[in-house]
Amino acid sequence: IKGKNPADSSGLFFRDGKKRIDYILVYKKSSPQVEKRCTFEKNLRAEGLMLEKEPSLTNNDIMFVKVHAPWDTLCKYAEQMNIRMPFRFHLRCRQIKSWLPRNPMKLDKEALPDLEETDCYTAPFSRARMHHFTINNRETFFSNSTRSRIVHHVLQRTKYEDGKSKMGINRLLGNNTYEAAFPPHEGGYKSRHPIKTHGAQNHRHLLYERWARWGIWYKYQPLDLIRRYFGEKIGLYFAWLGWYTGMLIPAALVGVFVFLYGLFTMDSSQVSKEICEDNTTVMCPMCEETCEPWRLSDSCVYAKVTYLFDNGGTVFFAIFMAIWATVFLEFWKRRRAELTYDWDLIDWEEEEEELRPQFEAKYSRVERVNPISGKPEPFQPFSDKLSRLMVSVSGIFFMISLVLTAVFAVVVFRLIAMEKFASFNWHFVKKNWQFATSGTGVCINFMIIMSLNVVYEKVAYLLTNLEHPRTESEWENSFALKMFLFQFVNLNSSTFYIAFFLGRFAGRPGKYNKLFNRWRLEECHPSGCLIDLCLQMGVIMFFKQIWNNFMELGYPLLQNWWSRRKIKKGGGGGQNVENKTQLPQWEKDWNLQPMNAHGLVDEYLEMVLQFGFTTIFVAAFPLAPLLALLNNIIEIRLDAYKFVTQWRRPMPARATDIGIWHGILEGIGVLAVITNAFVIAITSDYIPRFVYAFKYGPCMDKGHHHQNECLRGYMNSSLSVFDMGDLKNGSQSRYCRYRDYRAPPWSPVPYEFTLQFWHVLAARLAFIIVFEHLVFGIKSFIAYLIPDMPKDLCDRMRREKYLMQEMMYEAELEHLQKERKKNGRRYHHEWP
Length: 832
Known about the structure:
Layout: E1 23-28, H1 34-46, E2 50-55, E3 62-68, H2 71-80, E4 84-86, E5 122-124, H3 138-141, H4 144-156, H5 169-174, E6 180-182, H6 195-198, H7 203-212, H8 223-230, H9 232-264, H10 270-277, E7 282-283, E8 294-295, H11 300-309, H12 313-342, H13 357-362, E9 367-369, E10 376-378, H14 382-422, H15 427-431, H16 433-467, H17 472-500, E11 507-508, E12 511-512, E13 514-515, E14 519-520, H18 530-569, H19 585-590, H20 601-616, H21 624-646, H22 660-683, H23 686-696, H24 707-710, H25 714-718, E15 719-723, E16 735-739, H26 755-785, H27 791-830
Antiparallel strand pairs: 1-3, 1-6, 2-3, 4-5, 7-8, 9-10, 11-12, 13-14, 15-16
Helix pairs in contact: 7-21, 8-9, 9-12, 9-21, 10-11, 12-22, 12-26, 14-16, 14-17, 16-17, 16-18, 17-18, 17-20, 17-22, 18-21, 20-21, 20-22, 22-26, 23-26
GO cellular component, one term: plasma membrane
Membrane topology: Multi-pass membrane protein
GO molecular function, one term: protein dimerization activity
């Protein structure tokens, strides 16, 4: 990094100004775990690490332990961990050609000057073959993140009690021996001088200027720099998030086109015209006590808005989005393969993880030999594991039943609100009672969803700990699956009700189905129930994204502001530090917020739930991809700002993929095909209109005509007749209409289903079968056509392997020749 200011190095080195701080341990002087801490630090020094203690300037009870890894220790553990480093001989940087033309979204190469060596060949580090590697400067050969990862590896495997198999910083953090352990940031993220003229002070400053600032929201992310600073696991998250956001662009464009098609053809819709122009058709009352009959034309606005989302483009867009989900996942596999190659993760395998402290404490009396390491370790009996799993599953089902209870409560509210709004004194509300009912129901449902989410997180945490997972990755996967199930059901249960149950079991006038023999079940509007589904999705998606973004950035900002305020007041018993720039870097980092205890679970969960909203009911809401795209553009910069400025630097962890989330995304893709088929067939009026146009309409025997001509008379065909005199015990009859396919009261079998009802039902079922088989067939064919790894990448990998073998051979041969010459000169010199 050019233009480095020495003043910004405060807190990055030991007191001698030479030894770089690779890790920070924090403990309280009042902590009773003195013996464990002393043993642990003594063993750290025995492993080759150097320690230096420093008291806090703001809190007299806090002590910092600075950890430095010398060159020999770094080399020793780099060899043990098979860390790949740049190769020296015949260095050839691999060029990955791009067919994309130069565009303003790319970052300029001069803006990231020191990332060029990441494109060069690498090999596993070996002390015996140290002469093979490019070691221009021992201080910079291992990057800061690599040094931190090596130190973390040592911290995890160092004992804190002699003679016992108790080891690792995680356990010491769990029993409060230490308060925190984190790698330090590389300095401040702001500079008084512009980066264009003076360069970046450090990688953190460079990340802030080229990634976390709002002014570059349209630029590609510097993934190599993110990976170098935060590690491959976080780098893969941002790579996936960026890929998902980029893939949303075509989906959002098609969704907007479908919406605009509905907007521009709204006035020419035959169904809307018939509803708006029909001043004579009297509709049956929406409730039986205070409601009165109403005219079909009163719902003109409702019908036009419905057409925006229920038109000819609906089926096309549903098929497009199902294929889009497959293409997104298949091309992500290819992108992941390229990243794992570029980041030297192809041959990397996860090391055998250490046991969680809670698991070890619970099952320390029962041991068995680990089949990998061959050492005895605590073991969880199968009967205990099964019983705990059953309790956990029961807890999951209980929480899901609580969700369904909340949905039922919202349904009851809608039934009560429907009667109240339909008999409201205010004419505007009475005329638009459908919107009023749906709108208030959605808002109350959203508040319930956000309230229950808080409860779910605590329950999921308790149930996961109850299972006592063996390792941290098992804990994370179990917790992630529970959180996804809870929040997915919580978010989508009311949406499923509106899509597939609303208006399906209402009955008919004179024989309505009632809840608790009191409230009539809700009916669909004469133009369909799709607008209710659209309103539900739009409100929840819009407000949830705003709330998530506020909480993601607002909470850390408030916490850090409160920490700074306490420091200024000297609330910790230390010095009253007026200027926070006087604090060393380790103290500034300690005052930041730690990364979420759940790691990246919360970040992935938010995006995966959004992916579900974008695909599962997209037939009802074509603007969902556009909302998701706008949110993600903000989300990337929010997360970047949070990681760079508001959080302590997380340990640079390695990973080769996005873990359990890929399987969840594939499951959502399959569910999306099924739900969209049912939405079009059952919720939308597409199938009834199709059956009418080709079987009952004016075009059935006259060949091809314009769609609107074929739908003439559709509304009259879809409304049945009811004699209100049947309710008034022989009073003068007066007919009203209701949405159904039933015989009129004067027919031989009054109010029985007509033949048209069975034709529509058969068409719905046929459409579901054809749609699912067609889309699943296309999805499978696309997945077959797109290989998981690009062919040119396979060729580059084979070529690199071949070249590496040649280079290693040549390097070893050259080294042996130099040794022979050296020994020959020594022999000649010593000969008398």
